Amino acid sequence: MRLTRTSSIWTLIALAIGLTSTVKGQTNSCVPPTQFKQASLLVEAAGITWKNNGSAQEWIVAWGPAGIPPDNMTLRSNTFEPHFIVPLSNAQSQTEAYVKSICGMSSSDWVGPISLSDLSSCANLPLAYSINDTICGAAEVLLEEPNHENVIWWYAGLPRAYDHSLLTDSIQSSTTYWMMATKENGNDQRIGPDYGSQQGGYVNFNNSQVITVMDTILLDSTTLISDAAVSGSIRLLNISGNIVYQERSFFLDSDGEHRIPIRFPLLPGRYRLQVLPNPGGGRLFRSSTPQHYPYVLPGLLSVDSTSIGIINRYYYAFNLSVKSLCTGQIAPAHITVGQQPYSGPDVRDSLCLRDSLFILNDLLPNLPLSSGGYWTRKGMSNPITTLDLSVFSPGDHLHLQYITQGTMHCSDTAEYNIQFYDCKIGLTENQKDAIAIYPNPAVSHIEIDLPHDVNLQSITIASIDGKSMVEIDSYEASRKIDLSTFSKGVYLIRLQFENEVIHRKLVIR
C-alpha cells in the first residue's frame, strides 16, 4: 500500500509519540542527581549520597547484584533526603546501586552504577563484668572495667565516656553506672571540609554544628584551624541545648591546623557539637559560605554546618573523624555509699603513774568522742574497757584507739597517745604514798590528807587544758574542797610544796 502525504504526516506523529514513551516519563525539568557516591562504610550497610541539581524533592534508590539493569532490580526504596542507607546484610555477591530523581509524575534517568562495600558484622565482643564498690561518705570514684577493656560508660540515660575507666562526679548516695561492652569496627572515616576548601577570613563566635546519629558511634577527633595560639573547649549538647558531655579543653600553641581528640560516644539522636574559644587568643577559621555535608558516616547520618536561625555563622570543626562501634552486653557498676561516722579528734596527753586500775570512760570522760564506739590498743582488735597503770613505767607510751562503726563496714578511728610520768616529781616514795586524795572519782567534794612534816604551800585545781579553776594559798590537813560547782570531767590537782610539785588527776562524775 502506498502512503499519501497526509498519512505520512500522521505516521511521523505516531512514531514521535512512540519514541517519547520510551524515555519513561522523563522531562527536561527533572534533572538527574550528580556526585553519586558511597560516602561511608557501615556494619553490613553502605551510606550513599548525591547532589540535587534540580527541583527534585524525592529520589528512588535501587540496588542488587552487579550487572543487573536498575529496572530489573527488585530491591529499591524511595527517600526524601539526598542520602540513603543501603542494607547489605543478605548480600551474596558484589552489590551495585543506582539513583534517579522523582519530579511529580515524571522521573530522570538512572544514575550509576556504583559498587558498594560494608563493614563486617561484630563477633566476639568483650564481656563487661559487673562492679560492686563501697565508699564511706560522699566522694568521687574511679571505676575501672575489670578486664581493662574500653567500654561505653552510662549514667542517667546518657553515655559519659568511652574508656577502660571513669572518674565519677561526687557520689552522695548509692548509685549505679552502666558499662556497655564495645568494640571498634573498621578504620575511622572523616568528613570535610578541609583547610583548602575554605574561603573568607577569621572570626570569633560561639556556634554549633548539628549532627544526626543513627547508630552507636565514637566521635573521635576533629581539626581546628586558627591564626594564632588559642585555647578553648569543645562540648556536645542535645538538640535542646542541654549539655550531654562536659567540655574537652584544648590549647593550640601556634597558628595552623591542629588535631583535637574528642572521643564522645554517641547513641542515635540529634546533637550539637560546639567549639568555645577563650577570648584573648587567636581566631578560629570559618567558611564565608554555608557548608552542608549530607554524608553518612558510620552511624552519622548528616552534618549541617549552619546554625539554625542564625545567619552567616558556619561550620568550623574540620575533618570530623568517626569510628563505628559494635556494642554488646551491658553490666552494672554499683557504688554503695556507707555512712561515715566521726569518732573524735586525735589527742596527745600525759598521765601520772599510779598503782590503779581505771575504767577508761572514767579516766578520759571529757574527750569529745562520739557515742557507740569502743577502745582498743593500737594494733590489736579486742575492745578494752579498763587500763591498769601499774604495768607501765615513767617514759612509757601507750597508743589507744577509739573506733566508731558506721554502715557498710565504714568506721572512723580517733588516736589517743599517752606518755606516762612519775607522780612524785622529787618527793620521796614514802612522802608520795602518804598523800591521799579522796574520793577519786569525786562527786561534790574531795579531801587531801598530808603527812605532818610536809609543808604544803598551795593547791591549784585546773581543767585538762590548763585553765585554773580553784587556787588555795594555804591548806590544813584533812580539809574538804567543795566541787559542787564543777562540771563533770577530768581535772589536774597541782600540789605546790617548798621544793617540789606533785600533779594528780581528778575525775568528777
Automatic annotation (TrEMBL):
Domain of life of the organism encoding this protein: Bacteria
Domain Secretion system C-terminal sorting: 437-508
Signal sequence, start to end: 1-25
UniProtKB keywords: Signal
Alphabetized Pfam families for the sequence: Por_Secre_tail (PF18962)
InterPro entries associated with the record: Secre_tail
Protein name: T9SS type A sorting domain-containing protein
